[in-house]
Amino acid sequence: MVADQQHLTMFLENVSPDPSALGFNSSVPACEWPGIVCSQQQRISSITINGKGLKGTIPPGTLGMLSSLKVLDLVNNSLMGEIPSDIGNLTSLTFLLLAYNNLNGSIPSSIGSLGQLKLLDLSFNELVGEIPVSFNKLWSLQLLNLKENHLSGSLPLLQSSWDLEVLDVSSNLLTGGIPPQVLNFCVRLQVLNLSNNGLSGNVPFEITKLNLEFLDLSYNNLWGSLPPEIGNCTQLRLLNVQGNQITGLVPDEIGGLRNLECLGLGKNQLYGNLPQSLTMCTELYLLDASRNQFSGLIPSWLSKLQRLQFLVMHSNSFTGDIPIELFSSSSNLLHLDLGHNNLTGFIPPEIGNLVALRFLRLSRNQLTGSVPSTIGNLSQVTAIDLSGNLLTGSIPATIGELQNLLWLQMSENLLSGSIPGELSNCGSLLQKLQTLDLSHNNLSGGIPSSIVNLTALSLFNISYNPDLTGPLPEANQFVTFGPDIYVGDTKLCFYLNPTWENVSAWTGDNLPERCPTDPSSSGNSGFAAAPASAVMPKHLKLIVTLTVSVLGCLTALLLVLSGLLLNNLQFWVNCWWEKYRN
């Protein structure tokens, strides 16, 4: 016991400036320290010190000398340097958990001699080199997680790991094909995550013989078609093959995946129609078929998938009307993305039935008619993109009722009438509209004075609406916007608010000009020029500019993250990983 405590103390003194502050008091036996468990023989058998801010290297001759150690859990610290090779001396070790640190160098091949090892988690480090061939001897292994490192080379065969249930080597630099031997040896695999590598070749037929629940092959260089036998994986709940070069039709047999919850097919070269057999996947709540070559009508039978919450089908060649069946009052859709297709017809007024919807994108189609006023029923929506269509009529004032709206994009249409003042009501007191783009339309009349109440607005564009008239908004953050957002609006004018900078940029043949009179003397009800006493001090103006910029960046980041969330299924990957890790 004394020797064990000495070796542990040497490690702690190297990674913590004051081990006693963490409860490791040298005046009491190590078996009484927090996170330390000892055997009946008073030998240290388990070390669990996660999230304690340990910083430094693991010196050789410290932890590697604890010959009775069964559990080593140092997750979520700031450990650095190489994993010492004498870890391979811990022949009783069953759990080796070093994830979420800054460890670098190669994985020591000596780990392959840990025949009792069941869980090996080295994820989220800076490890390089190849996965040691000695891993083929880890015959007790049940979980291997090496994700988010810089490992290269090919996948190990793991020919002795018959009990392996979870294999995650995602987000590395692995190349070569998926060895069929791995799939033949690891017959108990339930989770297989090979995403975000450089793997190539076909999706191996042998993968369909496994009893997988989670299969993520996304963002590699895989080609060929999906094997029809994939329908035999009846326990699959997540199938993600996004970001590859997979071609051909989606096999009808995919309907055999009755437990499927998430299906990611995006960013491949799939074509034809989606198979109607998907209606048998009644548990499906995410379907991403984006960025392929699918054609034909948007299937009306999608409405039969009552659990469907995320439908992402942008950037294909779908044609025809948007099926009204998608807008059933019983729909659970949270995210609907049909942008960048060849859809025609109207936006059905029944869209107002999607009261749970958070994200709506119908951009870059050939939709006609007016924007239905029922869009104001989408009380939970945060982003609406209807840009790049042939929409006519006025902007519905009901949009102003959307208290959660942060992003409104209606540019490049044929919208007419005035900009409704109700838009200034969008968002709550704490979270107001941050992006408003109405450019390239046929809007007329003045800019509503209430627009300056959108104090969180960081992206504003009304350019190329040649019939807009009256003064520009010259208050709050609007004084920080450049002239490019008003290009082509030659009937607008400005009073040259003294807080503006780069006044010389406001000269050009296609820009607003100065208003002919000062509104303070003419009784003009438009936007007044700021009096000298109201001129914003430079430091306050900088704060406003930075605040607006930060808010805009956060909004953009949230939208990007939302897109990534849906495009690579990372949210569901993490959920599943946490399930199996725990």
From TrEMBL:
Keyword Cell membrane among record annotations: yes
Matching InterPro entries: Leu-rich_rpt (IPR001611), Leu-rich_rpt_typical-subtyp (IPR003591), LRR_dom_sf (IPR032675)
Pfam families per the UniProt record, alphabetical: LRR_1, LRR_8
Compartments (UniProt record): Cell membrane; Endomembrane system
Topology class, membrane: Single-pass membrane protein
Keywords, sorted A to Z: Cell membrane, Glycoprotein, Leucine-rich repeat, Membrane, Receptor, Repeat, Signal, Transmembrane, Transmembrane helix
Keyword Secreted: no
Gene3D superfamilies: Ribonuclease Inhibitor (3.80.10.10)
Annotated transmembrane regions: 542-566
Top-level division of the source organism's lineage: Eukaryota
Family: Belongs to the RLP family.
Name of the protein in question: Leucine-rich repeat-containing N-terminal plant-type domain-containing protein
Organism of provenance: Sphagnum jensenii
